[in-house]
Design a protein that fits this description.
Strand content: 15-25%
Number of helices: 21
CATH superfamily of the largest domain: Endonuclease Chain A
Helix content: 25-40%
Largest sheet: 10 strands, mixed
Radius of gyration: 28 Å
Number of strands: 27
Number of domains: 4
CATH architecture of the largest domain: 2-Layer Sandwich
Shape: globular
Structural class: alpha/beta
């Protein structure tokens, strides 16, 4: 019990923290200052987020309980206690999702001429169109099933939308009710566009259109009730590597077996006949608290269709064009430029084209004799694949592809085999570890006769599509020490050839965890010695207990710590005697915050690292990750004067974490501070509409006072500490 109490004092619950993150996304859907169709998009994102969370995390908790695990988590709760709390919170969240849809978004959509209509609301022309569409496009894809001894309950696919029916044979009106099931075709859009009118853009839900035609599909039955439903299955991926013939074959088998996962959630239309609900519940072998009644469309993630398909620019974010990279006047090409300086790119504010161009240039340039690349996930038409195939024709081309990229295994298998067929050497990394680092390495015989390495290191995937709405950082460099260590990392990935020292790189699972702990401890020593001591870290998630405990120790030693954590954070900030100097904020806005930045004041000799790794157990111990230093003076200046200050000054899209794991909007804490959005500022900075003077320098965000003797240049604004005493 003492251990449980101690953990609860040190850490918040992981599941509660994740739900808090998805609530922050939901707040963006509720926020009337966001464009209407963007609010619909945010609501759809909460739906897809929850889908993945239920089929992975909640399913994992259920699996651990069934396997007899009782070890408490970070917050001291046993798996069964965590599951009970999580399930109750998900029910509350689902209610909030549909309240947002029904009470806020649907009425606003109607006001703006975008209508989702019931069958009874259709006029004669719309009904005729819907009837024709059903006969032409929908009916040929439907397979109605009636459950009886000859027709067992069908294998309902994970997250497939279906209609359940209560049927009674017309010739046996006193006979038993029969359950029917119709699967809604995944190939068709969930919203059927009706003929345009002068005043509105109208849709009908595909499930409603099918429901209107159920009687025609079950001519020998009386349809007594029907309801749309969707079942979510356990999508955890387990396998025994030692027993597998090959990793590639193992993943193929698991992809097939995944369809056989146990049901973990049943979503069904609110008001569904209780008999339908009970029969489905029994069939899927789930408890009543795993049934979620939906006061609207089942599967809110499909609302993304409206956001993307409705052509109303006035209801969306204004278009943004990223800044184009211009080489120096005397540079002949990208390689000549990199011999002069490093290039730091901040996506999506800087175009991703230079990264693609770097890889394509490597494939085309006869002076490049070798190309090596890691890939975790990317787009189906990625130019990276075309470049590697082209390179394989006349130079050494090596690809390290991650087969276990969650939900992308099938496409990654296809890509890997296509690469092998083209002559690319394809590797799958170190057995038992996901390859998550973002590296591209070119070896070139330059014009001066020297052979040099050039590399790209990034915080995000090699995906030009997501680079338009994920915030990530790219470093292009020819720094001999960095490029040599990148070469050594590839040796580790392809031959498991470990070395003792990868400095200046931090490489997981070999050196990264201890290196980060050492950097944090070093700040503590500087603080005790009266030297400049500060940590600023930006990441997706913060879950590693050893890192959090080191941060607590640094706080007690006098280190000022600002953390920008988009998603999960189990750290408890602002606790007296524990974390008084730690502030945690989350920024949720137009772009998905995905970059990882780690800043250490280091007694005045500042160090900055970027990379693919969060402070999470899986990143530090269970994946191949790389964190790399920023050494170029101009690149460091940009991070210290522009990027970090913008996030620390945000009062519009930032929420501040409280000690209990809850969040409050920064605008509620800094009531007198000017409204400032980091993402809006960075867009306008890229477009040349603003300069660095636009970053607020209010008293609440003033820099931390430091000894004058060795004061280094620090990021200008300082995340406020107004909530630290809460």
């Amino acid at each position: 019990m003492a251990n449980k109490v101690q953990k609860q004092k040190l850490f918040n619950g992981r599941d509660h923290s994740w739900m808090q993150f998805n609530r922050r996304v939901l707040e963006e859907a509720e926020d009337p200052t966001n464009p209407l169709l963007e609010r619909v998009k945010f609501l759809a994102i909460t739906g897809s987020n929850l889908d993945e969370y239920v089929e992975i995390r909640q399913a994992g908790l259920m699996q651990r309980i069934e396997d007899g695990f009782r070890e408490p988590g970070y917050d001291g709760l046993r798996p069964d206690e965590s599951l009970a709390a999580l399930t109750a919170e998900i029910h509350r969240f689902v209610a909030a999702q549909y309240a947002c849809w029904n009470d806020r978004l649907l009425p606003e959509l109607r006001k703006n001429g975008i209508r989702l209509l019931d069958w009874e609301e259709l006029d004669e022309e719309a009904r005729a169109f819907a009837q024709s569409y059903f006969q032409r496009e929908v009916d040929p894809l439907l397979t109605p099933i009636a459950i009886d001894p000859a027709h067992p309950f069908p294998r309902v696919l994970n997250k497939a939308l279906c209609l359940a029916l209560l049927l009674r044979r017309k010739r046996k009106s006193s006979g038993p009710q029969v359950l029917g099931v119709v699967t809604v075709p995944r190939a068709l859009p969930r919203f059927v566009r009706l003929p345009d009118s002068d005043k509105s853009v109208d849709y009908i839900l595909l499930q409603d259109l099918i429901a209107k035609h159920l009687a025609g599909m079950y001519r020998g039955y009386e349809v007594q009730a029907h309801a749309a439903f969707r079942v979510t299955r356990n999508s955890n991926l387990y396998f025994e590597e030692e027993e597998a013939r090959s990793l590639l074959e193992t993943i193929r088998v698991e992809l097939h077996n995944r369809r056989k996962g146990d049901a973990v959630r049943l979503e069904i239309e609110a008001g569904a006949d209780p008999e339908i609900v009970e029969r489905l519940r029994v069939n899927f072998e789930i408890d009543t608290d795993q049934v979620y009644h939906c006061e609207g469309p089942v599967n809110l993630s499909r609302l993304m269709f409206l956001s993307s398909e409705v052509n109303r620019p006035d209801l969306k974010f204004p278009p943004f064009t990223p800044k184009t990279l211009h080489l120096s006047r005397n540079a002949t090409d990208i390689f000549d430029e990199l011999r002069r300086r490093d290039i730091l790119l901040h996506h999506p504010y800087d175009s991703y084209d230079p990264v693609v161009s770097f890889i394509q240039k490597g494939a085309e340039d006869p002076a490049v004799v070798s190309m090596k690349q890691t890939l975790y996930r990317t787009s189906t038409d990625s130019p990276v694949f075309g470049a590697l195939i082209e390179a394989a024709a006349n130079k050494e081309a090596t690809l390290v592809v991650e087969l276990m990229a969650r939900f992308d295994e099938a496409s990654n298998i296809r890509w890997a085999r296509s690469m092998e067929d083209a002559g690319v050497q394809v590797f799958h990394g170190v057995v038992g570890l996901k390859t998550y680092c973002k590296l591209a390495l070119l070896v070139r015989r330059d014009e001066d006769g020297a052979t040099r390495r050039y590399c790209h290191l990034g915080t995000g995937n090699y995906n030009p599509v997501t680079a338009r709405f994920y915030t990530d950082l790219s470093l292009l460099t020819s720094d001999p020490q960095i490029t040599e260590r990148v070469h050594m990392v590839f040796n580790y990935l392809t031959a498991h050839a470990e070395v003792d020292d990868y400095r200046p790189l931090l490489v997981a699972p070999l050196t990264m965890a201890e290196s980060f702990l050492g950097l944090i401890r070093r700040e503590s020593e500087h603080a005790k010695a009266g030297q400049p001591a500060r940590i600023i870290a930006k990441m997706n998630s913060l879950l590693e207990p050893s890192v959090i405990e080191a941060l607590y120790q640094a706080s007690r030693a006098g280190v000022e710590i600002d953390l920008v954590v988009r998603g999960l954070s189990i750290l408890r900030p602002g606790v007296k005697g524990l974390s008084e100097r730690i502030r945690v904020r989350s920024v949720v806005g137009r772009f998905l915050e995905h970059s990882r930045i780690y800043y250490f004041a280091n007694g005045g000799d500042e160090e900055i690292y970027l990379g693919s790794a969060d402070w999470m157990p899986r990143n530090l111990f269970e994946r191949c990750e790389v964190v790399f230093p920023v050494r170029d003076a101009a690149a460091k200046t940009r991070i210290l004067d522009e990027i970090l200050p913008a996030y620390l000054a945000d009062t519009t899209k930032a929420r501040l974490q409280q000690a209990d794991g809850g969040y409050v909007r920064a605008s509620r804490v800094f009531r007198d501070a000017p409204a400032f959005s980091s993402q809006d500022f960075l867009m306008q900075l890229a477009e040349g509409k603003l300069d660095l003077s636009a970053i607020p320098k209010s008293q609440a965000m003033k820099p931390v006072a430091k000894p004058a003797a060795k004061a280094p240049r620090q990021p200008k604004p300082h995340a406020a500490r107004a909530h630290a005493a809460d």
